[in-house]
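Quick one: structure for this chain?
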Amino acid sequence: MLVVSNTSPICYLIIIEQIELLPRLFESILIPQTVRDELASPKAPATVRQWIASPPVWLTLQSTSAQPDPDLLKLDAGECAAILLAEILNADLILLDDLAARRLASRRGLALTGVLGILDRAASENWIDFANVIKRLEQTNFRTSTAIIQELLQKHAK
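Got it. Here's what it folds into:
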């Protein structure tokens, strides 16, 4: 399965100590240079910068020289690059959390998921305690609908 990721899913999974879900679910992940740069940015959390300084073997940096169209340029640089890379490679899935990026990727025919989708899949496989992981996620600056969180908590209630 060919999976491209934006910055935020990787960042949040590192922060909540669930980054190893990515290779379990997808085997490998591709990121564009822009996403790698965002993960290594001084603005990124220290744990994220440390992680990307020695990336795991399942994370592949994929460059592209294609120029984005005007619609993509409305997005954050990492989102723009990830969507462009996913389109060029005809990826099976793109990992995005930002609502505007998700809407644009969906309109462009890309299959997508984000942190909550990843956690949902992992909980369905009984790899994580969903409620505890969500508590950790809620301690970050991750934002989503309370209704979505409640629905997923009910789905994975033990």
